[in-house]
Design brief:
It is built from eight helices and twelve strands. It is of the alpha+beta class. The protein folds into three domains: about 110 residues, Helix Hairpins; about 100 residues, Sandwich (Immunoglobulin-like), CATH 2.60.40.420; about 90 residues, Sandwich (Immunoglobulin-like), CATH 2.60.40. The protein binds dinuclear copper ion (CUA).
């Protein structure tokens, strides 16, 4: 009996150690994942956090094994036997050695964790931006992300485009985080830790992705009804592709004579109170900038794919796609709807 339980416990420990320490780092391949993943850092600050978290996990796993092992041993070794009837185990009061051990060892463990964590926080938060770093301002709104490149004159939404960093060529992006309404939290797990986005406060963080691709993230602070539909994408380009993206975004908005009717409807309804289109009378900042609307992958901050069909559903009544969002049903006629959508899909 004793042998069976011992070997079962042994197997369980091996499985636990294997899954914790061998599989987790084994995730590390070199492409972003399509689901949020804290075990596959692909950016300098995320890598630093990943390392300190593995240390904490290893220490906790060690404590778990020692405590659970001793507990299992004691439960079986000192279980009640028939000859124990009416006997009391020896009573021990006070042992300086034991009390010292269970005070000093935990203090040392906490001290090691504290030092390792403090060093990582210092490295991540204290990093000075290189003079040529890309600067981006991210503004959290209920329930979407406004993304501004103040030095480039670009404004977009829900998709942060940045250049990749390569060996010998760092291209970090430094983010200034602001909120237009309530508290949100900016989190792209493969790129950096969470940073809260707080009204009347400017928080800062940075990312330095090392692989091109699309990294998914989301708002990580409950911010109201559509908190779950406040997703964001970080699209990491090679240096050349990023330059190309910047050039495209700097282009003035399309103005196709074929879609003038839709443009007129757009500019004579309340659309322009909330939305901006660069270089036009539409200067609203309450909703996403639409200058290059169709260059984005999603609508409603990751709620649905940005296709002409979904855009039509969205403009007809956004509340059917994202209930509670701040864009109302504009009560457009079928003709107006067709004209506006025909205009909007040209904003590439
Ligand atoms: Cu914004 Cu949750």
């Amino acid at each position: 009996m004793k042998k069976i339980t011992r070997s079962a416990f042994g197997i369980a420990s091996v499985v636990f150690i294997a899954t914790t320490f061998l599989v987790a780092p084994g995730f590390a391949a070199d492409a972003p994942t399509t689901v949020t993943n804290i075990f596959k850092p692909l950016s300098t600050p995320a890598q630093a956090i990943h390392e300190v978290s593995l240390l904490a996990l290893a220490i906790c796993a060690g404590i778990f094994l020692v405590v659970a092992g001793l507990l299992a041993y004691i439960v079986f070794r000192f279980r009640e036997r028939p000859e124990d009837e009416g006997r009391e185990p020896p009573q021990v009061y006070g042992s300086n050695q034991i009390e010292l051990a269970w005070t000093v060892i935990p203090i040392l463990i906490v001290f090691v964790l504290f030092l390792a964590t403090a060093r990582t926080i210092y490295d991540v938060q204290g990093a000075a931006p290189p003079t040529d770093a890309l600067n981006v301002t991210v503004v959290g709104h209920q329930w979407w992300w406004e993304i501004r490149y103040p030095n480039l004159g670009i404004v977009t939404a829900n998709e942060l485009h940045v250049p990749v960093s390569e060996a010998g060529q760092r291209r970090p992006t430094f983010l200034k985080l602001e909120s237009a309404d309530v508290a949100h939290s900016f989190w792209v797990p493969q790129l950096a830790g969470k940073t809260d986005v707080i009204p009347n406060r400017e928080n800062r963080m940075w990312i330095e992705p090392t692989q091109p691709g699309t990294y998914v993230g989301n708002c990580a602070e409950y911010c109201g009804m559509q908190h779950a539909h406040m997703m964001l994408r970080v699209i990491v380009h090679s240096a050349e592709e990023f330059t190309k993206w910047v050039a495209e975004q700097k282009q003035p908005p399309a103005d196709d004579p074929q879609t003038r009717a839709g443009r007129d409807v757009f500019f004579t309804t309340a659309c322009i109170n909330c939305h901006g289109i660069r270089g036009t009378p539409a200067m609203g900042t309450f909703g996403p900038d639409l200058t290059h609307l169709m260059s984005r992958e999603t609508l409603g901050a990751g709620t649905v794919a940005n296709t002409a069909e979904k855009l039509r559903d969205w403009v007809r009544n956004p509340q059917t796609i994202k209930e509670g969002c701040n864009m109302p049903n504009m009560q457009l006629t079928e003709t107006e709807l067709n004209q506006i959508v025909a205009y909007l899909v040209t904003l590439k």
